[in-house]
Amino acid sequence: MDLTDALYEIMSDTETMQHYPAPFDEARTRRSRIAMKIFVSAIKNKKDATEKEKVMAEKMASSYDISEIKYIEPIVMYLGEKDNEKAV
To answer: Is pTM, for the whole model, over 0.85?
Structure first.
């Protein structure tokens, strides 16, 4: 079982998703950019979360989205500096 399958198993569960408008179907789980955030929140609020689910949610909550501008700007600045060094 890969991470997406595990995520779908949880995101399609009516009890876990009781505070969300509706459980996710498989296609929505796979394409949703916010699925991970919802997953982490659902697991944190789940009263009977397994140890595996708790660890998974903890790891996922501390990760970052590399596409956010705050992560891209330093790379762009670094590459710009390297480009300027070559020009000199």
So the answer is: no
